[in-house]
Amino acid sequence: MQFLAAENAPWWRSDEVIGGVAGAVVAAVLTSIITWSVTKGRLSKENTRMTKDLATSKLSANRLRGQLESSQRTVTRLTAVEQKYLNVRNALTNSGVIQHFHQPVLLLGPRAVGKTSLLMQWNAPWERTISVQSTRTHNYATVPVFDYQLPYDVPYAADPDIRTTAYAHLRLRVHDFPGEVSAQTKALEVASQEALQLRADIGQNLGVVLICMFDAVEVVDGISSETNQYYNGDLFQRLRIYVGDSSITIQRLIVVFNKIDLLAKRLPQLSQPELLDRCVTTFMKLLEPLRGACSAEKVCETLTMCDRANLMASQGGPVVKGEAARGMVHAISGPAKVAELLNGNSASTVMSTQFPIVPTLS
Ligand SMILES: Nc1nc2c(ncn2[C@@H]2O[C@H](COP(=O)(O)OP(=O)(O)OP(=O)(O)O)[C@@H](O)[C@H]2O)c(=O)[nH]1
Ligand SMILES: [Mg+2]
Q1: Does the keyword Transmembrane helix apply (predicted)?
Q2: Pairing state of beta strands 250-258 and 208-215?
Q3: Residue burial 13-27, b: 16+ Cβ < 10 Å; e: rest
Q4: Contact (Cβ atoms closer than 8 angstroms) between residue 154 and residue 163
Q5: pTM over 0.85
Q6: CA 167/CA 60 separation, integer angstroms
Q7: Pocket test for ligand 1, best of 132, 220, 227 (most atoms within 8 A of CB)
Q8: CA of 305, nearest ligand number
């Protein structure tokens, strides 16, 4: 059976149908055009935005690439620096540091008793050609006592993260003065400065070492007026006061009777202990001004021969040096080191019995 429209045309050829289809097509086309147009506009905007974004991203990528390259260069440089630092660190760790400890020593005594000769025995014992001249101004020399490795590591000063081996170098700083009374002001000044320095450096109540020298021949010839004036000079009076107010501490008083060779020639019948006794008896009263400045156990005495013209016969220099170093070795290295290094190398202590034990100030 067939559906026929009016005038016998097929149903799909009827005007109504055609019109409806056309309308629908036109509507669809229009819709598509509008949709396309709207979409195109949006896409175009989107495209513009994305193009911008892309450009921005490219810029950003370029910047990041630049930063990456710069960082890579930095990393390369820092890797080299790190390697250098590790090398330096290794070198410093293995190098060790030296801690210097100085014991101040003051050589005191009138003209020509042999102060400079004693110092030269310590400072340049191999030098036989230097003739000793009268000292014109204060000077000092550093005399090594001994060096050793400390039993602990210490932080390196330049970088405390680095710990390294420490070596202690113990030395005497020996001050030599002219033997005139006028040089005593300088000696007192040096004693005060050294006392301060010692407290700052070592922090213990160490003090200065005084070496009071005498010309032993005065046992026979009588005490000279120069010797009398020197030991009754301002220095010894003032030292008592400074010790009293704790500005200066005397670590050790070493009394040295020098030129024992000449005294022995004058008194050939006496043995060395007898010569020493004669010296003690003769010179003891000259140390009267130091009574109260120094307690008995700090006093010792010895005979010496320091003539450089006869070095082979020299005597007593190492004993004086050992006594001067004793307090510092004890404080820094301990009593065992004192026993190891200084036993059998000590001065006698006859005079100490004549010093008051408790310091007194008038
Ligand atoms: N025979 C002998 N002569 C000595 C001895 N010690 C020093 N002398 C000599 O004594 C003289 C004076 O010695 P110095 O060491 O200059 O004495 P000083 O105490 O430094 O003298 P000043 O610097 O003037 O205060 C020098 O000619 C030394 O060679 C000694 O033990 N025996
Ligand atoms: Mg001198």
Answers
A1: yes
A2: parallel
A3: eeeeeeeeeeeeeee
A4: yes
A5: no
A6: 58
A7: 132
A8: 1
The encoded tokens of residue 162 equal 């680095």
The length of the chain in residues reads 362
What architecture is the 97-354 domain classified under in CATH? Answer: 3-Layer(aba) Sandwich (3.40)
Beta strands in 177-207 (DSSP E): none
pLDDT tens across 181-219, in order?
999 999 999 999 999 998 888 776 789 999 999 999 999
Ligand 1 interacting residues, C-beta cut-off 6 A: 109, 111-117, 132, 134-135, 178-179, 258-259, 261-262, 305-309
Which one of the ligands is nearest to 258 CA?
1
Instruction: Tell me if 168 sits within 8 A of 99, measured CB to CB.
Output: yes
Instruction: Ligand 1 pocket test: pick from 107, 116, 117 the residue with the most ligand atoms within 8 Å of its Cβ.
Output: 117
Report the nearest atom of ligand 1 relative to the CA of 132.
16
Q: Are 339 and 292 in contact (CB under 8 A)?
A: no
CA 262 to the chain's CA centroid: 45
- Residue-wise pLDDT for 212-252, tens only, equals 999 999 999 999 999 999 999 888 889 989 998 888 999 99
